[in-house]
Design goal:
Number of strands: 9
Keywords: RNA-binding
Organism: Sistotremastrum suecicum HHB10207 ss-3
Protein name: RRM domain-containing protein
CATH topology of the domain at 2-79 and 141-190: Alpha-Beta Plaits
InterPro entries: Nucleotide-bd_a/b_plait_sf, RBD_domain_sf, RRM_dom, RRM_Rrp7, RRP7, RRP7_C
Distance between the termini: 140 Å
Helix content: 25-40%
Shape: elongated
GO molecular function, one term: RNA binding
Length: about 325
């Protein structure tokens, strides 16, 4: 059974599960494809979890396979590689070779070394460089790559007649068994993915400790390459010691020469802030509530007595006194 030039190839995953592939001979009408038309099989509706090894095992009985390429991995497969960059790189390489021969001499002979008559330089003994610590990677499980559904692939054979044998051996009524692989498929794939993203605490601890060791090593290496070190004076280009002001007592960056600050010179006081005494929390204990209530009642009573005295005084002033 064929439709639009494609031959239907049923694939069985075991049981009643059947997947349909559509295969045909690869045709390059414009001449821009990098795959040869006479020995390339074009496969459409490739399973999303198919691997390179499974496609090789599935189509290998018809001939030796040179290459398997997924269209989703290489969307620009139909175009030929740009040969201009290769030619430019070849020309640059030739130019570099000519420059090297010009430096060595017109005849290409190497000039003698000034270190000695035998032409060998004396190498200075170097100390062993400390190797950076290696980060322990987290454990990972071999998982297959999931691609979008309905994608295509190219199966390139070594023999020209392999494509015809592969197409002639297809029986649309009898499904072929899809080869098995070590990578989990279906629900087992997502279970393995879940387990791989949740490693054990020991593995995470080893990974974190090794990462911290590498970070400390890089920090120490940057400090060694720094221009100024602690305890050394800062020297400018002319060889004079540079005096800088900083800190409460004029501590410089290098630590060689220091100048006191203006505040310390005038008063002798430093900029250090005095620590404030911790205050007792208000309305935290029960006796604080009782004392506050008692003080409020006493104040209210005093205010009432003062108001009563004012009222009495005002009444006495308003009395009529004819004599």
């Amino acid at each position: 059974m064929s439709s639009s030039g494609f031959t239907t190839l049923p694939v069985s995953y075991g049981g009643s599960i059947v997947h349909y592939l559509y295969v045909t001979e690869h045709r390059d009408s414009k001449g821009r494809s990098q795959y040869p038309s006479n020995r390339t099989l074009f496969v459409v509706n490739v399973p999303p979890d198919a691997t390179d090894r499974e496609l090789r095992l599935f189509f290998n009985p018809h001939g030796n396979i040179e290459k398997v390429a997924f269209n989703s991995d290489h969307p620009q497969d139909d175009n030929q590689p740009d040969e201009s960059s290769e030619s430019e790189s070849d020309e640059e390489g030739a130019g570099d070779a000519e420059d090297a021969t010009m430096l060595n001499g017109e005849d290409g002979d190497a000039q003698p070394n000034q270190a000695g008559s035998n032409g060998k330089r004396r190498s200075k003994p170097r100390g062993k460089k400390e190797k950076p610590p290696i980060v322990t990677p987290l454990p990972s499980a071999p998982l297959r790559r999931l691609r979008p559904t309905g994608k295509s692939a190219y199966v390139v054979y070594l023999d020209d007649s392999a494509v015809k044998r592969a197409l002639s051996s297809i029986n649309p009524e009898t499904p072929r068994v899809w080869p098995s692989s070590s990578e989990p498929r279906g629900l087992a794939h997502y279970t393995a993915l879940h387990d791989s993203r949740r490693p054990s605490l020991d593995a995470v601890r080893l990974h974190a400790d090794s990462s911290i060791e590498l970070f400390d090593y890089e920090v120490a290496k940057r400090k060694q390459k720094s221009q100024y070190h602690k305890g050394e004076a800062i020297v400018d280009e002319d060889g004079f010691t540079l005096v800088t002001r900083g800190g409460a007592y004029g501590k410089t960056l290098g630590g060689g020469v220091g100048v006191a600050s203006k505040k310390f010179q005038s008063s002798g006081a430093t900029d250090s802030k005095k620590k404030k005494k911790p205050k007792e929390k208000e309305m935290f204990y029960a006796f604080q509530h009782n004392e506050k209530r008692r003080a409020g009642l006493i104040k209210l009573k005093k205010d009432w007595e003062a108001d009563q005295a004012k009222v009495t005084k005002l009444r006495e002033q308003r009395r009529f006194k004819p004599y």
